[in-house]
Design brief:
CATH architecture of the largest domain: 3 Solenoid
CATH class of the largest domain: Mainly Beta
Distance between the termini: 48 Å
Shape: elongated
Helix content: under 10%
Structural class: mainly beta
Number of helices: 4
Radius of gyration: 24 Å
CATH topology of the largest domain: Pectate Lyase C-like
């Protein structure tokens, strides 16, 4: 069995390795790809940025490379570092051949300065264009990244070189406008004890240090899966992390889930996803707050984006399990995303709201979602709002509050919207699963999606309440599901 752990690889002598890091301001910034510390191209005016402790606190300060030793001696530490296997300066505490090594040095710097939670500069690791192959086997061979890359200290930026041409609405077209920094598996990432191993993990240790504030930007993620071998591996997993920012990345085919975020707060902006082969392309589970804006998802998993109550799913070895709360709220804003071609039978869907997360049936869950100005085209269902994972003998209680407006929902094979107080398949007559009890679903729809066009299942006898546009809906059901045809078309 593959053993997962974070490698702590000494890059220089102990003192310098502990002082290593990359730092900018507390707000992520776009950084150029020129490396002013590269003495081969800029020998006279070579500079480096350090996190300098002055009278006003810690702040990033650019200094001459010749002054670095003096600043390190005063307790400063290096800010932006660079990953480029072709660099002639590897080993100078600024340049690295692997992302694995740069992350280990950044974590060592955080530990050395007792910066596990607050009062730190941002650590930025700029990754040059090229393909970075990794493996989950331990130890990774020389020159190969050790997957997963675990980030469990705060305010780290991983910035690659990928830029994508935007469409007229600002969403990524998927066409690269620059050479990319590619993260891929040299061998297929495994599924161990029902856990799909990720390329990157952002972890928050309960009561301890956390990967809060992680930025992942400008990478192309590839699963390395054999198309005939089934899905495997995730691109990004986050557990108990706040302030996560995922922007401008491309996610290729073959992942079980491309982005799987649990009990976190995160922004996902202008990412391109295509060909997720397992469950959801983007999975957003509570408790937490999420923004998904300007992303393009094409021909992926069963749902494109899910917003869930807390999930009780297993995690990779070395990551503490998430302890399910007794009650939780999930809040999500989904806007200006384009989701196409999610046509899995029976319930492929663009956006899905799950009142109860998988493995969390006893959590008193409430999910709030604002679904505005998205383009949902050629999906089996446009949107599904349902109980999701009710289990007989459990609380069977949850609530949702969903605002749906300004969306373009076209070419839905079955229906633009399905609402079910049980699981979606129960509403469609495909399975017999329990209904929620004494629960309330509140849904607001604009004029582009009249209630008369909505399929729903809200039978009497369970004490549930369904409110649409301020009006209580009488018990009843409506659906015209056809597994062979497309009544919605």
């Amino acid at each position: 069995m593959t053993q997962l752990h974070r490698l702590r690889i000494p890059v220089l002598a102990t003192t310098l390795s502990l002082l290593l890091a990359a730092c900018s301001s507390d707000s992520p910034t776009d950084l150029g790809k020129n490396d002013p510390s590269d003495t081969t191209s800029n020998p006279v005016y070579a500079t480096v940025t350090v996190c300098h402790t002055g009278s006003s606190g810690r702040e990033p300060t650019e200094i001459h490379l010749s002054d670095l030793s003096q600043h390190l001696g005063h307790g400063d530490y290096i800010t932006t570092t660079f990953v480029d296997p072709a660099s002639t300066s590897i080993g100078d505490a600024i340049h690295f051949a692997r992302i694995t090594d740069a992350l280990s040095a950044a974590a060592a710097a955080r530990t050395a300065h007792a910066e596990s939670e607050s009062d730190m500069c941002r650590i930025t690791i700029e990754v040059s264009e090229g393909t970075y192959e990794g493996t989950a086997s331990v130890p990774a061979p020389e020159g190969v990244e050790q997957f997963p890359l675990i980030v469990d200290v705060p305010n780290i930026t991983l910035e690659g070189t990928l830029l994508m041409e935007p469409d007229m609405n600002g969403r990524p077209s998927g066409e690269p406008a620059s050479p990319a920094s590619v993260l891929t598996a040299v061998d297929p990432l495994p599924i161990i004890d029902d856990v799909s191993i990720p390329i990157i993990i952002a972890n928050g240790h309960p009561g301890g240090a956390s990967g809060d504030g992680l930025v992942v930007k400008g990478f192309s993620f590839e699963s390395g899966q054999d198309p005939d071998g089934g899905p495997g591996g995730q691109a990004i997993l986050a557990v108990r992390v706040k302030g996560l920012h995922i922007e401008g990345n491309s996610f290729g085919a073959g992942f079980t889930e491309s982005i799987d975020l649990r009990a976190s707060d995160a922004e996902l902006v202008n990412n391109y996803l295509s060909g997720t082969a397992g469950s959801c392309d983007i999975c957003l589970a509570g408790p937490g707050e999420y923004l998904a804006q300007g992303n393009r998802l094409e021909a992926g998993g069963i749902p494109g984006i899910t917003v869930d109550g807390p999930v009780g799913l297993p995690v990779p070895e070395g990551i503490e399990p998430f302890e399910l709360p007794s009650a939780a709220e999930t809040r999500a804003v989904l806007e200006n995303n384009e989701i196409r071609d999610h046509l899995r039978v029976p319930v492929g869907v663009g956006i899905r709201v799950d009142a109860l997360g998988v493995g969390g049936p006893n959590v008193l869950s409430h999910v709030h979602a604002r679904i505005h100005d998205n383009v949902l085209v050629n999906n089996r269902f446009g949107i599904i709002i349902h109980a999701a994972f009710p289990v007989e003998g459990t609380a069977l209680h949850a609530g949702v509050d969903v605002d749906v407006a300004g969306n373009t929902i076209e070419e839905s094979c079955e229906a633009k919207l399905l609402v079910s107080l049980s699981r979606h398949q129960t509403a469609l007559g495909l399975r017999e699963l329990p209904y929620l009890r004494n629960s309330t679903f509140i849904i607001d729809l604009d004029e582009t999606l009249p209630w008369s066009d909505v399929w729903y299942s809200h039978p009497a006898g369970y004490g549930n309440t369904l409110v649409v546009n301020g009006e209580t809906v009488a018990n009843g059901a409506r659906q015209f599901y056809d597994p062979e045809g497309c009544p919605g078309s």
